[in-house]
Amino acid sequence: MLSGNQVKHINSLKQKKFREIHRQFLAEGSKLVKEILESQYKVLNVYAIADWLKQNEDIVLSNQVSFVEVSLGEMERITALSSPSSALAVAEIPEMTGPPALINDLVLVLDDIRDPGNLGTIIRIADWFGIKTIICSENTVDLYNPKVIQATMGSAFRINIFYTDLKKFLSSLSPKVKIYGTFTQGESIYSTPLEDQGIIIIGNESSGISKEISLNVTDRISIPAYIKDNRHIDHAESLNASIATAIICSEFRRRMG
Amino acid sequence: MLSGNQVKHINSLKQKKFREIHRQFLAEGSKLVKEILESQYKVLNVYAIADWLKQNEDIVLSNQVSFVEVSLGEMERITALSSPSSALAVAEIPEMTGPPALINDLVLVLDDIRDPGNLGTIIRIADWFGIKTIICSENTVDLYNPKVIQATMGSAFRINIFYTDLKKFLSSLSPKVKIYGTFTQGESIYSTPLEDQGIIIIGNESSGISKEISLNVTDRISIPAYIKDNRHIDHAESLNASIATAIICSEFRRRMG
Question: Which residue in A32, A253, A239 sits closest to A118, CA to CA?
Fold first, then answer.
């Protein structure tokens, strides 16, 4: 049974403003709730229907979390999805630390990714390709937006994600760190040298990498469109930001065998 | 000025049933309208606000299409998007022919892609990588769904897309045609031989390639997750269907140089 205040509190967490005030966020759906319970995140409450609690008795018994049984009608009042799910967790937003000073692996840097679906998909791609760190510009969509959490399919709980002033961060790095960025006129990603550590910058969905940030790029790369026999033919003008991220990460990892 | 019947007709085209009855579909947004006017599709009407018509006078004068000036309020009544755009075209759905009998290039085959955004993104990826033909199972989401057309960003007008009984189609092909399909236990796409012609099957978002269709696959491939030092660590369980398509197409095209 949910009180009016609980409903109000949960719904408030769909807005960034209240997530920041309460330092809490939502993870919804059976799979996501199970993943967050297994992660290092601190879960405060799980709201779930009777069936879910019954089916997942082992999880309920082994976790020191407050499980609250709710009706499907109550789930409808708190869901952040288009249709209510069987379980919803409220978890703590961990303290934000600064991004790592030392780059000894591949790191993704996001320059103003605005679409929640894109950010979620990019996090899932990073998780697949063993990229452990993502650094976002301050204008990148909030990681704890329910649509982002949803689209990551649990990958958000396994990756270190930071928000920071990108210009300052990139300028603070050793000049030895490679900074890759995608540009129409860049070197083909299939033939240009790629190192196994460094930064890969992904630009905004419509404007790409910002002018200011592009000054920090050391290696301009591109994903060439395939044009048979070098004939000029019309083709898609660009690739979606998350699609480009997937192709770039795949090629870096292919080289590393 | 729009009549009540026009509003009703345009709105009916948001449903597959009425698209099939009228053999018409919608393409919305300034860029898409311009692209469809330049394509081989037969455009019947373009509804646009005064500003758009003024800015695109050359297009209006050079096309034998009925351009109808509408107010922004009227656009709101017919838009298929979350906010009204400046122009919307009604075009004819061309006669469907059968899929090609001869496979002399790379062809994508979609086994029940259900999400409109995924289908649109896959079409855009095909267009980028010079794949000219996509063959969809009969249960794949309708190409002329406004959300699909929107997500293709115009690429739908440059690719041949067929809907057919996949099992029959695949079984009718010469046994010499390579049929690639992605499976968890497949050979790594980075090291397995890939030919420059053949079929690449993309499976359904949640269940992958169906059992029946998997019997036709000649080459089982996979996109390996990157695991450092071969240590077992948790990572994303899977990649989104359009993300997998992007990585596979990119690798095929890389080999073809």
Answer: A239
Q: What is the value of pTM for the model shown?
A: 0.93
pLDDT in tens, B175-228: 999 999 999 899 999 999 999 999 999 999 999 999 999 999 999 999 999 987
Distance between CA B118 and CA B218 in Å, rounded? Answer: 25
Distance CA B96, CA B178 (A): 25
Alpha carbons B128 and B246: distance in angstroms, whole number? 10
Q: Does any CB of chain A come closer than 8 Å to the CB of residue B158? A: yes
Domain identity same for A62 and A36: yes
Q: For A109, what's the count of Cα atoms within 13 Å in the CB-facing half-sphere? A: 29
Give yes or no for a contact between A240 and B124, defined as CB atoms under 8 angstroms apart: yes
Same domain? For A62 and A121 the reply is: no
Q: Which of B223, B228, B243 sits opposite A121 (nearest CB)?
A: B243
Neighbours of B25 (CB within 10 A): 25
φ, ψ for residue A3 (rounded to 5)?
A: -85, 160
CATH code: domain of residue B146: 3.40.1280.10
Task: Tell me whether B247 touches chain A (CB under 8 Å).
Answer: yes
Q: Is A219 helix (H, G, I), strand (E, B) or coil?
A: strand
Closest alpha carbon to B115 in B147, B83, B93: B147
Q: In whole angstroms, give the CA distance from residue A26 to residue A24.
A: 7
